[in-house]
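Input:
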Amino acid sequence: MIEKQSSNSRSQYIIDDGNSGLFKVARKAFVEQDVWQQEQLRIFDRCWLYLGHESEVAGPNDFVTRAIAGRNLILNRDAAGQVNAFYNTCTHRGAFVCRETKGSSKLFQCFYHGWVFSSEGKLIDQPGKTAYCDNFNQDGSSDLARVERLESYRGLYFINYDRNAVSLDTYLGGVKEYIDLVMDQAETRMEVVGGTQAYAIDANWKLLCENSIDGYHAATTHATYLDYLSNTAGSLTNADLWGAARQLGGGHAAIEYSAPWGRPVARHVAAWGEQGKKDLDAIMARLTQKYGEERARRIGLLNRNILIFPNLVLNDIMAITLRTFYPLSPDRMHVNAWALGPQEETSAMRERRLFNFLEFLGPGGFATPDDVEALEMCQRGYKNLRAVAWNDISKGMTREEPGTSDELQMRAFWRQWNGLMTAQEAAE
Amino acid sequence: MSQATVRGATNQTLTRHDFEELLYTEAALIDEWRLDEWLTLFTDDARYLVPSTDCTDDSTPADSLFYIADDRFRMGERVRRLKKKGAHAEWPHSKVRHMVHNVRIRSVEGDVYAVTCNFVVYRTKNDVTNTYVGHNEYKFVVGADGPKIREKRSVLDMDSIRSVGKISIIL
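Output:
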């Protein structure tokens, strides 16, 4: 048996042997400073990176500020309604022009010398303007600098630091099918619910890429969560954890599966009562009318863990989480996570969604802290890499159709990562 | 804990000293991992909340993503989980130490006391000591067996929880 997606290749980082069914990853990829520096150039400077959601800049002049791959950016909607991504730095001497994490403002004023920029990024005032030459900034070079590329798909705004990158649409390719399955849950649009989970893990960022789409670890790492579910009257259906893994091209990957927990769109559990059932039946009827029964059932009943290469995770499980993360060094990452929900959702269903979210997800939930512990223990384990140099990611490689607890989806990530890291046209 | 340390029948006015006793006892129970006893300090309809650090005072777990929003049942499950070896983030148990300060009674309405305090919580595991800083907003209700906590809202006075990573202990 040969894994048809196998590249049948070998580099200093991976061994991808489809013929014998073995896939190995070198542990030095998680620890070496040089690898981390190359990742900045070959991955984070070239791939499309998630910046924010349209609902976070819903109105004119709304803004959020974020650090994306080591750079500080502003995402805003200007007075005319256009969405922009600017570098958060005054073109005069460099200070931040915006020091809040979110808000609404017609202007960005640098407090250092008082330069003022419009929401479109135009330099509109400088104290002592008469002391500057007549044609100062006629070429716009003192306006706020725009991030090289900004494009959106289904409400998700991505940036790219490479002016020559392929379009976002092309880049997303096969993963769009899965993004659609999430976004189609909303009758109107999806929105980010208030409240950001901003935490950190002392481990390499690629460990979280793997972990976010890993169906294999649930039974051991999350035994206490599964135990909690079975202990919770009315919180479970009899659906088994069962499904398939897919490699979607470009390093994107997903697992899609049935699971016993309730889904606010649209798998009912007894704990949500009669009204909950009515709410969900109405959602399912709408989905069926719009998309037909087969697609409606797929949207409503199945769960999806989606990895959008390199570092955006869209997990559509007992709630929807949007999670992105950046390495600060080989052994530390910052993580930001948000909850996503349909704008038209009833307040009761929103409450159920958020209650569901927190029992599993996030750094105070019943599962995520144990993932964090596992990742940090892996990172510590890599101190022994001279003696044990390789990780194994071979599970399911000899199967015709790898399942969710196999590791095809992780191999998909690593094949793309390896391709970018070993490409001959280096990131000069 | 011993109820004898807490005065308070329904017809008796409670003082700051009474609540200091209660809060110090609560802190000790958490620090000593006597979590089943910790649960007995709460009413059956109690909630334990930790809002995300960008939430506002009027954010609720029904409209905003918190870090923790437990009803009394899930508080019990949290404790049950933390006592297991399978709660990997807290096994072996970390060393926890609560500092409780600035205890104030903010309002009294009938049997319900709103009490606030400041806290610093240290958690040490794997040779790393994390520091959680914030304030607690309690609602105590005084019943036949003395005051019990109906709501504990632990508000972190931090910009994020990046410096501590996660909240695997009870604040």
